[in-house]
């Protein structure tokens, strides 16, 4: 298997372990959209306690990629996604967080 396939398998396993209800197609599509960032140990994960990181998710993914309007609901959605993955979980994979957010805002069709 390729490195990409290995990473996608990690994301699918996390989805199953946490019972997040994401489709394999959505996870794979989001992972493809992230490009080489999924191969870097730091950029492949989201820190749920770092406000700068949450702002990056909001600006680069929710606003620029999904085309959503800025508002308090975006921050609340990020906090909700992080809570679903577990506050103590140190491996919140970016692809899984983004897939949760895409699903929440009904934007799955952009990735599948």
Structural topology:
Blueprint: H1 3-17, H2 24-34, H3 51-65, H4 72-85, H5 94-104
Structure description:
- The chain is mainly alpha-helical and 112 residues long.
- The protein has one domain: Jann4075-like (Recoverin, domain 1, Orthogonal Bundle), CATH 1.10.238.120.
- 59% of the residues lie in helices and 0% in strands.
- It has five helices and no strands.
- Helix 1 crosses helix 2, helix 3 packs across helix 4 and helix 4 crosses helix 5.
- The longest helix has 15 residues.
- The two termini are 21 Å apart.
- The mean pLDDT is 95.
What keyword list fits this structure?
59% helix; globular; mainly alpha; single chain; 112 residues; Recoverin, domain 1; 5 helices
**Class, according to the CATH hierarchy?**
Mainly Alpha
Low-pLDDT runs: none
Terminal CA distance reads 21 Å
Q: Can you summarize the main beta sheet?
A: none
How many discrete domains? 1
């Amino acid at each position: 298997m390729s490195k990409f396939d290995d990473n996608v398998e990690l994301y699918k396993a996390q989805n199953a372990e946490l019972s997040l209800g994401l489709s394999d197609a959505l996870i794979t599509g989001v992972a493809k959209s992230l490009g080489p960032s999924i191969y870097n140990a730091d950029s492949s994960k989201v820190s749920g306690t770092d406000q700068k990181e949450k702002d990056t998710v909001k600006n680069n993914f929710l606003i620029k990629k999904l085309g959503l309007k800025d508002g308090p609901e975006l921050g609340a959605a990020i906090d909700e996604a992080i809570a679903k993955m577990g506050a103590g979980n140190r491996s919140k994979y970016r692809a899984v967080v983004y897939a949760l957010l895409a699903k929440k805002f009904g934007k799955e069709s952009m990735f599948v």
